[in-house]
Amino acid sequence: xxxxxxxxxxxxxxxxxxxxxxxxxxxxxxxxxxxxxxxxxxxxxxxxxxxxxxxxxxxxxxxxxxxxxxxxxxxxxxxxxxxxxxxxxxxxxxxxxxxxxxxxxxxxxxxxxxxxxxxxxxxxxxxxxxxxxxxxxxxxxxxxxxxxxxxxxxxxxxxxxxxxxxxxxxxxxxxxxxxxxxxxxxxxxxxxxxxxxxxxxxxxxxxxxxxxxxxxxxxxxxxxxxxxxxxxxxxxxxxxxxxxxxxxxxxxxxxxxxxxxxxxxxxxxxxxxxxxxxxxxxxxxxxxxxxxxxxxxxxxxxxxxxxxxxxxxxxxxxxxxxxxxxxxxxxxxxxxxxxxxxxxxxxxxxxxxxxxxxxxxxxxxxxxxxxxxxxxxxxxxxxxxxxxxxxxxxxxxxxx
Length: 400
Ligand SMILES: Nc1ncnc2c1ncn2[C@@H]1O[C@H](COP(=O)(O)OP(=O)(O)OP(=O)(O)O)[C@@H](O)[C@H]1O
Ligand SMILES: O=C(O)[C@H](O)COP(=O)(O)O
Description:
This protein is of the alpha/beta class. 36% of the residues lie in helices and 16% in strands. It has helices at residues 33-47, 72-82, 95-102, 119-122, 126-137, 156-160, 171-184, 200-210, 224-230, 245-258, 304-315, 336-347, 357-365, 381-387, 393-396; strands at 13-17, 24-25, 28-29, 51-55, 86-88, 109-111, 142-145, 167-169, 191-195, 216-219, 261-263, 267-271, 286-289, 298-302, 319-323, 351-355, 375-377.
């Protein structure tokens, strides 16, 4: 795979596919980690005198313009971080984009509007995606793939566009792969993996692979309840992936056979309903045994005994990979589990990797110093699929 250093970019129009999909509260960016991670590549291109065209998706709009998902606030923040004007194009491949690109001098930067305002970006139809990629290709001379968080998506700007232009990987992709390779090639043991979060169906599959790799797997977040149910426990109204129960039972049996330690919550925090994340009104949580969750209640965080248990299981690990918050950390009543795991990682001498948009944001929003972790990956789904050994479309497309 060529890197950006192999390209001659001076005076050329360089299309940078970044992942600037940041959490927004209205027009306020609540965590700018992904924008900061994109800066080294963009700043390097500016320094080399390229005409830089940055593009990204934000959220999941339905293939048409939707102001809630505009990248305008991101353009402002990117400009602040670069210390220079970022011209914002009001569309992605229309007059706005063409004019913005035509007006670029050497070392200037434009950000296109959300790629997903165009149905072609995410289409399953090769021809429709290809037609959109042709329109994007007309804007640029060279392609730099740097949106690590989106490389697992077979989308026009990630997969089809690099085939149409000279291409290379940017600094973020290169540094993410450098770190994640250490978890696939020569991982230092004991290797512990902590999994949580809400995208349960996306993430259960990775356990299949981890059973061959990890020494210890700790489960929290919304994922834990499918495991507790599979063990025959009552889980009230907690998040459940019912169709995955047989798979989960098979994972538990295989873990036993292979001597992989599988650690599940021993207690959880429950409440009668999902908390209000806007008002943050007190949710009156109750700590209960994981084996005795009351019917009608919902598990929303790991409990205090589990926090201690998980901290002890992480204390002597040599490598830790963590994806997915332990609870609904956005509400103060259910942030303790995520804080406890983050604290355990900070105190551990292990090489620690935190992967995932929400997990990385949680660590920063809860006030942890990101430098206290070995690596904070900008990719959640992307890093998990990479660890699974899957071929990622956005990486395959950058190979020669
Ligand atoms: N018990 C629970 N019930 C419901 N939601 C939960 C629970 N525990 C955690 N969550 C939610 O999980 C969400 C994060 O999960 P997600 O799987 O998206 O994490 P991520 O991998 O870091 O992000 P991404 O995959 O988007 O990069 C948070 O918004 C949190 O509120
Ligand atoms: O947040 C992410 O994981 C990436 O930006 C990809 O977004 P997606 O899951 O909407 O494709």
